Amino acid sequence: MFFVNARAIIERENAGKTEIIIQTRNKPDEPKQLELPGGKVEKFESLTHALRREVMEETGLTVTWIEGEDTRIDTEGISPNRVVECIRPFAAYQTLKGGVDSVGYYFLCNAEGELFKEGDCAQNPRWVTVNELAEKIHSDPQQFINIDCAAIMFYLKHRAKVPY
User: Fold this and answer.
1) What is residue 162's three-state secondary structure?
2) Phi, then psi, of 162 in degrees rounded to 5
3) Conformation bin of residue 41: beta by default, left when phi > 0, alpha when psi is -120 to 50
4) Residue 63 class from Cβ within 10 Å (0-12 exposed, 13-18 middle, 19+ buried)?
5) In sequence order, what are the residues at sequence separation of 6 or more whose Cβ sits closer than 8 angstroms to the Cβ of residue 8?
6) CA–CA separation, 59 vs 81, rounded Å?
7) Domains, the chain, ranges and CATH?
8) What is the pLDDT of residue 162?
9) For 36, 40, 114, 142, which has the most beta carbons within 10 A of its beta carbon?
10) CA nearest 38: which of 117, 92, 114, 98?
């Protein structure tokens, strides 16, 4: 089985510090590791629609802005039977060994609303500072799901400019 995922790095500024949302994965028969919101893109679903849906289902938040959404191009109207989209994500991943065979796209975004205590296969979504995130990934990277571990290291290096 092969999956395509849309995943969110939800940022906000709070008291002069950048924070992002992490949550605890709550899937049957899987360890309760930390993760970023996001999940599987359904058949013929756009990446941004999947991102908004997954964030709402897991956190209760409404995505209000997605970096790169203004780059989106689609082929609507060219062929009556096919539509393809192209968009610039923040980062892309591919599993290379072990776990579930998947590729996915991370989008930087903003969201608003009240956080759920528990969402779809997720618990305790919460805001953490970038420095707290860096400390968590540095001290124990295995507390994060594998795909998000790589994405967080990428985010810290290329966006937050924080050593991991």
Assistant:
1) coil
2) -110, 130
3) beta
4) buried
5) 21, 36, 37, 38, 51, 54, 55, 63, 106, 107, 109, 111
6) 35
7) 2-128 (3.90.79.10)
8) 87
9) 36
10) 92
* Matching residue, tokens 């980062």: 91
Residues 89-128 have pLDDT tens digits of 999 999 999 888 999 999 999 999 999 999 999 999 999 9
Paired tokens of 121: 């296969």
Give exposure, 116-127, as e/b (b: 16+ Cβ within 10 Å).
beebebbeebee
Identity of residue 90? F
Query: Which residue do the tokens 């579930």 mark?
Result: 100
Gap between the Cα atoms of 51 and 120, Å rounded: 14
Closest Cα to residue 149, out of 133, 129, 163?
Answer: 133
pLDDT of 54-81, one tens digit each? 999 999 999 999 999 999 999 999 999 9
